[in-house]
Amino acid sequence: MTQVEFTWRDSELTSPPLRVLNGVGAQLARFGLDRPSLSPDSVVAAAVKAAGSDDLGSDSYRDPLEIFLEACRTEAELTTFGRILITKMLAAALANRIELHRWSLDHPAVADECIDSPWVIVGLPRTGTSVLSMLLGLDPVARPLRQWEAAHLIPPASLEEADADPRIAQTTKELDGLMKLNPPLRAMHPFGATLAQECVSLFMYDVRTLALETQAHVPTYARWLEQADMTSAYAQHRLALQALQSRQPTERWILKTPNHLWHLEALHAAYPGARVIWTHRDPGPVVTSLASLANAGQRPLTKRSDPTPTAEEWKRKCAFALGSAMAFDTTSGDGWCQHLHYDALVSDPIGTVRALYASFGDEVSDLHERRMRVFLDQRPKDAFGAHRYDPADFGWTYAGLADEFSDYTGRYGVGTEHRPA
Q1: pLDDT tens digit string along 359-395?
Q2: What ranges do the domains of the chain cover?
Q3: Is the CB of residue 239 less than 8 Å from the CB of residue 98?
Q4: Can the peptide bond before residue 391 be classed as cis, meaning omega within 30 degrees of 0?
Q5: pTM for this one?
Q6: How far apart are CA 419 and CA 421, in angstroms?
């Protein structure tokens, strides 16, 4: 059976109704009628209407919302469909924020929940972070954030309700719609209502998140975010976990998002006892794969066909994150994290998890190991097609990328996966 292969090019918007919508929108834009509005007030109004309250707890979301939407207007070259999707995504995130705030006021004991020593995986995308979070999440006393929970947080499900919560089916339907719209995404990233979700989604409640940059080319917002105070974003992050934990107790959370790598000081201020794991891999395939993924995410929403601006921006972002993290590593001394090489994880996943537990003075339980073995035996490879990426698509070579990231690879002994050409 021939395996289906996908690249960023396959994310072209093909839906006839949506292409007509974009055509009509383009005609209206010629008369100065860009719709829907990218006004912060209209987004907030939609969130307030959905949540049934105008109490967002604070205005910490306001500056990033304004900066992001202005970047969407001036840099992202969004289609009409892109404007619709972006504004709906923002409104849903702010509605979640309103509902979380209201829940915390109605259930003040939520604030007493202790998020103790969570596993936090901080490596760049495509460095094994997803499979590692899945393996850690098989520990009976730990658990990840689920995709359906991140999408529809409040009310948090109880232990009795969790397995049959109707929001699981709702999220499945929503993800199926996304996959029909953009089939390559399923080959590029694991999607599923009950699968582990990157906790980057919780930063959406404060509009301070890399997730927004996967949907739109917004370098002005990106540079603002790199210097932003993330205290309020981590407060939303923690409160969401506390709400979930109040109804489904767990001993330890498994958290994963590259977003942490950009803001390690804020991470350690929010979770000083965290078990941090920094995953390392040759930046050549990492950056190339990420450039392909980012272009695939943005392509159905933008008029821009050239993949280079998005690719170059994400390469710059990765270099910034690694430089910032290396500086933090220099000043923090030994022990703030465990460094994990991708090739070690791939060659011996269970042994790697055992070593991680041992580094924190803990042991993998027999049940946890049995679960990992079954998971690895049953896990399909490339079940939804294979993601193919090529640095030449973006004007790069693996040799050139190796030179650009040599300070990082030299410092951490990261091997090269592709022979420089």
Answers
A1: 999 999 999 999 999 999 887 665 445 788 999 999 9
A2: 5-412
A3: no
A4: no
A5: 0.92
A6: 6
